[in-house]
Amino acid sequence: MTPPTIIFIHGAWHDTSNFSPVIGILEPLGYPCITIAMPSTGGTIPTTDLTNDIAAIRHVVLKEVDAGKEVIVCSHSWGGIPTTNALDGLSISERSESGKVGGVVKIAFLCAFVVPVGTSLQDATGGMSYDGIAEDGFIPATHFGQKFYHDLDDAMASDLESKLKLQSVASFQTKATSAAHLVIPSIYLICEDDQIIPMFLQELMIADARKAGGIMEEERVFCGHSPFFKNPEFTASFLRRAAGENV
């Protein structure tokens, strides 16, 4: 088989380097890998909604599928929300109906938020308030850093915490307007020791997606919120299975 292109979407406060351990495994196996920096993460001027994040994803995905390539979009954490808003009309089945070659064959969620239309990340977390922690339109990672990496060794966790960026508040408050996971088959990696998105919430989002008609497979791994750091080999194998390999 010709391996699909895997496009990686990072989560809040993070950046594209998160996926380097996994990409280092996949690329020698023939998988073209692309990372996208989300505009709502970092910078000095906060975004006001998800428009720029959605556009960034769609631009890269369109370039690949218009070149006739099959694509898997792999999204971590908050990145699941702009992803499912960015892929309207880009599934391989929809494009085939229009006589086009190439398309998105699967969405792979890594302990990610998967929400219905009309729901924001803030809604999905029970209406969590950012009063008192938001500064100038951004949320600093200082309140969350330890929970990202609680299962990594102290030196690695400390180094990773130091690299976390600011996140625009609006990216958590903007409601989803599309739900591509109800059209494009998907697979979800449940991280059972996640202290950011508890396992029960991951399971609930999967159940809700299935109830709404989505085709969503699932796999499980006992690790925290960063499977690409804790177990890059398993994460790479998960993506290979998403691509149809028997590994």
Please provide a brief summary of the model.
This protein is α/β, with parallel strands linked by helices.
Describe the protein's architecture and organization.
The chain has 247 residues and is of the alpha/beta class. It has a single domain, classed as Rossmann fold (3-Layer(aba) Sandwich), CATH 3.40.50.1820. Helices cover 34% and strands 16% of the residues. It contains 11 helices and 8 strands. The chain has a 6-stranded parallel beta sheet with strand order 2-1-3-4-7-8, sandwiched between helices. The chain has a two-stranded antiparallel sheet with strand order 5-6. Helix 1 (20-26) packs across helix 11 and helix 2 crosses helix 3 (80-86). The chain is globular and about 50 Å long. The mean pLDDT is 96. Residues 6-236 form the AB hydrolase-1 domain. Pfam families: Abhydrolase_6 (PF12697). This is AB hydrolase-1 domain-containing protein.
